[in-house]
Amino acid sequence: MATPPAQGKMLTVLSIDGGGIRGLIPGTILASLEAMLQELDGPDVRLADYFDIIAGTSTGGLISTMLAAPNDQGRPLIAASDINNFYLKHGPKIFPEFSRLAYWALVAIGKPPKNPVYDGVYLRDLTKKLLQDKTLKDVTLTNLVIPTFDIKLLHAVVFSSNDAKSQVLNNAKLADVCNGTSAAPIYFPAYYFETKDDEGNTQTFDLIDGGVAAGNPTLVAINSFYGEKLKQKSRTPEIETVDGRKMLVLSLGTGASPFAEKYNADMVSTWSIVDWVFQSTTYYTPLFDSVAGGTSDMVDFSIAARFQSVQAIENYLRIQENGLTGNAAKSDIATEENMKNLIDIGEKLLKKPMSRINWETGRYEEVEGDVTNEEALATFAKRLSDERKLRLAS
């Protein structure tokens, strides 16, 4: 669907950040949201019934694809309540503990391996088994948007099911798109694949993690809709501007470390490239901390400003845990203990007061009114339900 139905005035967007095994946090939030919608509209509804766009980067791209890809009956492949079970079952095999411990032990003694931490074979086989030969254009219930980054061309590549329906060479297999957006540098090998049209023309992709370009894909998701309208300019008299009054946007993070002065100018001034990639004392990667955290916050800042400028901030809901510490803050600790802890973090996050980014300090602050994330999500669910009812009534 290039535009929302006329009777439903709002463009509805779901966006899910990247973050590896921390996908358990938005998985918990999504299960709660879908349960709320089912209470309103019946047990058979799914998230893809409510969102015009579902976007995700890296692990968020995998979640988004599972929520949007069709099964044999044309309904979403999995329910939101199945997401966490997927991670609990497959996480330890995607991120095997032995590989992680062996890799960083060698780095710590100054003998870094020449290969990524994980070979990625299990994840690639899993996605191909799960998604089979389904392609982007097979996604018909919603528009699936997945950012990636082409390391050969050094620019972002955004896959969209809407775009795939009109551009044959962009109609990639869903499994290839998922493996491309999940190919995080250091952790997994880059991912190569080709697409081909009926005339034998080919297009090649050399992809790494979409988080390099858009760890928080919310802005990409919104822009994909208006970009589609611009392509239709010859058929559309007016191109609407991005207007927060006409959108309902839910953006889910996978968690971040608390605001802390872990590094300073004197410290980093003496670092080599190895220090930037890996700190043996903390087992963190400062380079990726900086890039991922900075770009995600800038996206949140930009979108919040757009909505606030038209007095429609209530149409934008960002749920993010900003207090992750220890193993919970890392993207590849798939032990049973840590995975259960991440689910617990997601459940507690629902009970926490709703917060928004402070434009001046960059910190997240509680919203006045003593509203929890769960209450805000319930309000959002009711608005999604009302929007869907308007569309069905037509």
Automatic annotation (TrEMBL):
<keyword id="KW-0378">Hydrolase</keyword>
<protein>
    <recommendedName>
        <fullName>Patatin</fullName>
        <ecNumber>3.1.1.-</ecNumber>
    </recommendedName>
</protein>
<feature type="active site" description="Nucleophile">
    <location>
        <position position="58"/>
    </location>
</feature>
<feature type="short sequence motif" description="GXSXG">
    <location>
        <begin position="56"/>
        <end position="60"/>
    </location>
</feature>
<keyword id="KW-0443">Lipid metabolism</keyword>
<comment type="similarity">
    <text>Belongs to the patatin family.</text>
</comment>
<feature type="short sequence motif" description="DGA/G">
    <location>
        <begin position="209"/>
        <end position="211"/>
    </location>
</feature>
<dbReference type="Pfam" id="PF01734">
    <property type="entry name" value="Patatin"/>
</dbReference>
<dbReference type="InterPro" id="IPR016035">
    <property type="entry name" value="Acyl_Trfase/lysoPLipase"/>
</dbReference>
<feature type="short sequence motif" description="GXGXXG">
    <location>
        <begin position="18"/>
        <end position="23"/>
    </location>
</feature>
<dbReference type="InterPro" id="IPR002641">
    <property type="entry name" value="PNPLA_dom"/>
</dbReference>
<comment type="function">
    <text>Lipolytic acyl hydrolase (LAH).</text>
</comment>
<keyword id="KW-0442">Lipid degradation</keyword>
<feature type="active site" description="Proton acceptor">
    <location>
        <position position="209"/>
    </location>
</feature>
<feature type="domain" description="PNPLA">
    <location>
        <begin position="14"/>
        <end position="222"/>
    </location>
</feature>
